[in-house]
Design goal:
Elements: H1 2-20, H2 33-49, H3 69-95, H4 115-128, H5 142-147, H6 151-164, H7 169-183, H8 194-200, H9 203-206, H10 216-226, H11 231-258, H12 271-284, H13 287-298, H14 308-321, H15 323-334, H16 346-360, H17 365-371, E1 374-375, E2 378-379, H18 383-393, H19 402-419, H20 426-443, H21 448-464, H22 467-475, H23 480-492, H24 494-500, H25 505-524, H26 528-574, H27 583-591
Antiparallel strand pairs: 1-2
Length: 596
């Protein structure tokens, strides 16, 4: 209609002029054709502009048709579809507003044809998805789960397992652990955060966790059954349990490292069951842990600061069954950590001391440990562990730490255990030679407390085994400074020390050998410090030799007098006439004996 008005308008105007011509009465209107054309063009444009304005502001000019009309129609249709989709989504949300959350408001961007469709589809999907309220599981503690164990049910289960897997004790033990796994399946990791507990609690607190929650009747039923299992199967079970614990530890450490916030790890299987079963095995059969010890020392996967609390906990369980086994495990496997540069830190040192303090605080601990110092031919505290203990107790003044005083407190009892044993036995002779080898080096060090303690232990070794004198002779020149200190102590404390010597002959032979070596070294020359040590050693050797020789002569004189007295007494008893004895002759007999 607009286009037709534009084209017909000049014709209408022309007709008007023709009809009005006779009414001019001869008058003619003067017009300017150029001006009329401009006016007509202006009127035509104003009439068209009102109908041809576009949405985007572009105007149709002259008589040209609006070629963008189709695009405008598409845009209007697109807007209409978007509005309709939004209305549908809003209506759906209003109908289901109590269950569904409010849907998103989608953008009505005119340039994206798919917006309306996506909004409609999401609205329909949200109608299908209905959020169900989360059902919170009741929290079950270890104590609550343990209280529900029926001893008779456990006994029946163990009888059935023993019959079903009669020749496979390793499977029997795993089924035993599975029983407790079902018992503690409802216990979440939050109720038994063993990693945090072991890291932050004392040894005394974790030693009875979680076994303290098991009733006496259930415990007795379990350990009686464990007692009938073979050592091979029990060793395998202990290693399997330890692997399970370390696996859970590794997974928890991975979660902690991968998250900024502390996330509580959810174990697939309750670790409380593993700890309960393992504690029962170690308490009933503590020797099993001694059989596992070589694997723990040699395999790196059982070593490290993060794994130490678990090993300490296991030794604490063994202590409950046999205190001597507990000290053996501590001295052979736990104490050496103190020497490690990478593994020794205040936390590790504290765990080492807490464990031995717990062992020594047990009732009658000293008596039990001293009497059982040698177990199946092996010492509870071997010489290597004793050296570590001695150096930790007597460090340099600059190396003293808070733990040093705690080592000083436990040292006397542990020293007594390390040196205990029947005198003259094979075990004592062997231990004395091993101890002598490291004490002579410690004597020569410039640590007064350590040097004094080591020299006393060195002299003790000489009294236990005569072969130690020969060993000293071999070590003499290589440890000249230590030997000088020992000779000086022998010389100064001769009265007390000589009584402890069973025989002075080995000492005299050794001192003569030292004298000969001193003369050779002095004749060969050398630096002044070495020469001074040789002269001091030679002086002390000759002084002790003089005392040994006098003592040897006294012993001979005393022996002669005793023999003579016995002979006289026997003769007097056998003689029928006591008066026939001439007292002057008897006096002359005694006076002829060697003088003292």
């Amino acid at each position: 209609m607009d286009e037709r008005a534009v084209t017909l308008e000049p014709q209408v105007n022309g007709e008007d002029e023709a009809t009005n011509a006779p009414s001019n009465h001869g008058w003619q209107k003067v017009t300017y054709a150029k001006r009329n054309r401009k006016q007509q063009s202006k009127n035509s444009d104003s009439a068209v502009n009102s109908d041809t304005a576009r949405v985007n502001g572009t105007l149709a000019t002259g008589d040209k048709p609006n070629v963008f009309r189709s695009l405008e129609q598409q845009s209007e249709d697109r807007r209409r579809r978007v509005l309709e989709a939004q209305k549908v989504a809003a209506a759906a949300a209003a109908d289901d507003h109590q269950i569904r959350s409010k849907p998103k408001h989608w953008s009505d961007d005119e340039d994206d044809d798919s917006d309306g469709v996506v909004a409609a589809e999401n609205g329909q999907d949200q109608e299908k998805k209905v959020k169900k309220p989360k059902v919170k599981k009741p929290k079950v503690t270890v104590a609550e789960a343990a209280s529900k164990i029926d001893a008779s049910d456990l006994e029946t289960f163990l009888v059935d397992v023993s019959a079903s897997y009669e020749s496979k004790e390793d499977i029997q033990l795993m089924r035993f652990a599975d029983y407790f796994g079902r018992v503690f399946s409802a216990v979440s990791a939050a109720q038994f955060p063993w990693v945090k507990m072991f890291r932050e609690s004392t040894v005394a607190k974790i030693a009875d966790v979680p076994i303290c929650h098991i009733s006496d009747v259930v415990y007795k039923t379990s350990v009686d059954w464990i007692n009938r299992r073979s050592s091979v199967a029990l060793v395998s079970f202990v290693l399997w349990s330890l692997d399970c614990i370390h696996s859970d530890l590794a997974s928890q450490q991975a979660v902690t490292k991968g998250s900024k916030k502390g996330v509580q790890h959810a174990s697939s299987k309750s670790q409380a069951a593993i700890f309960v079963a393992l504690a029962m095995v170690l308490r009933r059969k503590p020797d099993i842990l001694i059989n596992v010890l070589p694997t723990l020392r040699e395999n790196s996967k059982y070593q490290g600061q993060d794994k130490l609390p678990v090993i300490v906990w296991m030794v604490a369980q063994a202590c409950q069954g046999d205190l001597a086994v507990g000290l053996y495990l501590w001295a052979h496997n736990i104490l050496p950590i103190v020497n490690g540069k990478s593994s020794c830190n205040p936390q590790s040192r504290d765990l080492v001391l807490q464990l031995v303090e717990r062992i020594l605080s047990a009732p009658k601990a000293r008596t039990i440990l001293v009497n059982g110092a040698i177990r199946k031919g092996e010492r509870l505290v071997p010489p290597s562990a004793f050296e570590t203990l001695m150096r930790a107790t007597f460090p340099t003044s600059s190396a003293r730490v808070k733990a040093t005083e705690r080592f000083e407190a436990v040292y006397p009892t542990l020293k007594e255990v390390a040196l205990a044993g029947p005198a003259g036995s094979k075990a004592m002779k062997q231990a004395s030679q091993q101890i002598l080898a490291f004490t002579i080096k410690a004597v020569g060090e410039s640590i007064p407390e350590l040097s004094n303690e080591a020299s006393s232990i060195f002299i003790w070794c000489l009294t236990q085994n005569p072969d130690c004198y020969k060993q000293w002779d071999k070590l003499y020149l290589d440890n000249l400074e230590g030997s000088v200190k020992i000779l000086r102590k022998l010389n100064e404390q001769w009265k007390e020390l000589s009584v402890k010597q069973s025989s002075l002959d080995p000492l005299r032979e050794t001192l003569k050998s030292f004298t000969d070596e001193n003369e050779k070294e002095l004749a060969g020359g050398g630096d002044a410090a070495h020469q001074a040590l040789l002269k001091d050693a030679d002086k002390y050797c000759k002084g002790i030799l003089g005392r040994v020789s006098r003592g040897h002569g006294c012993m001979k004189s005393l022996t002669f007098v005793v023999i003579a007295a016995v002979a006289v007494g026997a003769a007097a008893l056998m003689s029928p006439n006591m008066e026939s004895w001439d007292l002057k002759k008897l006096s002359a007999l005694f006076s002829s004996s060697p003088s003292f």
